[in-house]
Amino acid sequence: MNIVAWTVLGLLAGAIAKAIYPGSQGGGILGTICLGIVGAFVGGTFFTLLQTGSLQITAAGAGLSLSGLFVAVIGAIIAIFLWGLLTRRTP
Asked: How far apart are CA 50 and CA 6, in angstroms?
């Protein structure tokens, strides 16, 4: 998949995940894109693990498809959760 398709998938997945995930996540459009791209890799890796039983770092889909977007959104929600754990401030 080329860089433009990755950017579009990342933007869509990150924006949908931020809309679904409760609370305020912060970050701008660049953060949303990066989070969506990371989510595509996280979702694709978990999906491959569930399908094949082997851990392989893969992307959510070979192209822009509804199933690839769905997996990328799930991965982006996981990435938002993990990012919140890492950046949480303790009083």
From this structure: 23
